[in-house]
Amino acid sequence: MTPRSHSAIRLSLMALVVTLAMPALAGDQVVGQAKKAFTVGVLKAKVGDTITFRNDDEFAHNVFSLSDAQSFDLGSYKKGEVRTVKLTAPGVIEVECAIHPEMKMKIEVAK
Amino acid sequence: MRQKSFSQRISLPLVLLFGFLFIAAAVAAERDPWLRPEVAPAPPENQLNPARINLGQLLFFDPRLSRKMTMSCASCHNPSLGWSDGLPTAVGFDMHTLARATPTIVNTSFNPIQMWDGRKSTLEDQATGPIEAAGEMNLPLPELIERLKSIPGYASKFEAAYPGMGITAVTVARGLASFERTVLSTESPFDRWRKGDEKAVSASAKHGFELFQDKAKCAVCHMGYNFTDNGFHNIGLKTEGTPDVGRFAQRPLKSMRGAFKTPTLRDIGLTAPYMRNGSYKTLMEVVEHYDRGGDDKENLDINMVPLSLTAAEKADLVAFLESLTGVPPDIRVVSLPQ
Fold first, then answer.
1. Three-state SS across B214-282?
2. DSSP of B60-91
3. Residue A56: which residues within 8 A CB-CB, separation 6 or more?
4. Cα(first)–Cα(last) distance of chain B, in Å?
5. How does B54-68 read in b/e, with b if 16+ C-beta sit within 10 Å?
6. What is the DSSP string of A49-91?
7. How far apart are CA A104 and CA B127, in angstroms?
8. Staple partner for B67: which of B112, B116, B138, B312, CB 3.0–4.6 Å?
9. B11, B229, B255: residue with CB nearest A98
């Protein structure tokens, strides 16, 4: 194996580690729902950001939060459809799917 | 000796690590998602052992866990009736009929959420609920503990199962949960077919399984080896009297009004009548319900749509469902501590 290929492997591994460790960046963002799971575990965002929840599964999901920081119910919707929520207050929003309670994620909302 | 570079030192372990992860992923990917794991998961603080299972079995079959000493857990979760009761809805304290059917406890140890409305998460959380419930066994836990402490034969059973922890609500719950983790579905004709025995099920059942996953959309909710998404759906059952709000009592969201947890289909041939209110006596009636897309359309789950199944397709679905029933193991009748 050449030194160049060693470097390429190291860079790839570093990129993988950074990708896995890095929370999603702030801004208007998309969270998928695939294989009965949210594609993001913890999302960092700011008040005023818009989060779009996209359903990539073959069956319906119902994203909601009953958190003190902000509560919302996006209702049931099918594959390919999206629902959005605008973040209105700082704090931690615990998000779940009403239909599939195993699906959980958090949005950490900064001012 | 030539000094190895950093990349040389790190490459071999990394190659081994990723090789292992790749193989592990490949093995995991090859596991048939429709075949149940051998062992039910248990929390670290309540790992299974024979003493715990034995204690749990004694408690499960002991009618002294109810106020009037007339009902045990097995009165409703009867192993002779598919760990259910054969009734449309359960009969509780003083023979009062309850609103919901007794769910089987087969494979419930694999479920991350318990009860028709999901109000309990773990088996340990769930285990003492029916004992306390006024409509069910109706025995407050402090009275239960005093009663169990007054039975000399239980002391050694608790000590063997949970050394030094005594007879408490926690050890009662853990013992019951341990026994419930041994209540598992047995190998069904469907399982034997999935393992390669082409003659284990009929051609009709095989076609029924295709329909189950495709045209009939059953696997949208009844997915995986336990045939449940552990989710909540309003499937449009006809209701009489005050509607049962189901999951809405736990999660006050529109879609949860009238929604109930998807039950397992394992051993379904043993657990008639069907549905959370016991409204259908046969599997064909169940299939007909889904073919109609449900009856009560108010707040119906959006996955529920008319299916336009032919008579032959309905028969194939029933043949498939019947193939999910194994041979129930013989349960030993235990002598209760005195």
1. CCCCHHHCCCCCCCCCCCEECCCCCCCCCCCCEHHHCCCCHHHCCEEECCCCCCHHHCCCECCCCCECC
2. HT-GGGSTTS---HHHHSBGGGTTB-SSSS-B
3. A32, A33, A34, A79, A80
4. 76
5. bbbbbbbbbebbbbe
6. -EEEEEE-SSS-EEEEEE-SS-EEEEEEE-TT-EEEEE--SSE
7. 25
8. B138
9. B255
Beta bridge partners of B274: B280
Q: What is the pLDDT of residue B19?
A: 56
Interchain CB distance below 8 Å, A60 and B301 = yes
| Torsion angle of the four alpha carbons B177, B181, B183, B184, in this order, in degrees rounded to the nearest 10 | 150
The amino acid that residue A95 corresponds to is V
User: What would the pLDDT profile of B119-162 be if each residue is shown by its tens digit?
Assistant: 999 999 999 999 999 999 999 999 999 999 999 999 999 999 99
Strand A61-66 and strand A37-38: pairing?
Answer: unpaired
The DSSP bridge partners found for residue A95 are A105
Whole-angstrom distance, CA of residue B131 vs CA of residue B139:
6
Q: Is A72 on the interface with B (CB under 8 A)?
A: no
Adjacency order of strands within the sheet including A61-66: A42-46, A104-110, A91-97, A61-66, A71-77
* Cβ pair A77, A95 in contact under 8 A: no
Nearest to B113 among A62, A77, A101 (CB): A101
B228 to chain A, minimum CA–CA distance in Å? 11
Long-range CB contacts for residues B93-98, cutoff 8 Å, separation at least 24: B93/B66, B93/B67, B93/B68, B93/B134, B93/B135, B93/B136, B93/B137, B93/B138, B94/B68, B96/B135, B98/B135, B98/B136
Give residues with Cβ within 8 angstroms of A16, minimum separation 6. Answer: none
Residues of B in contact with A101 (CB under 8 A): 112-113, 118, 230-232
Q: Report how far residue B261's alpha carbon sits from residue B276's, in angstroms, rounded to the nearest whole number.
A: 9
ipTM score assigned to the predicted complex: 0.85
Token pair in block for residue A105: 């994620």
Tens digit of each residue's pLDDT (9 = 90 or more) over B68-83: 999 999 999 999 999 9
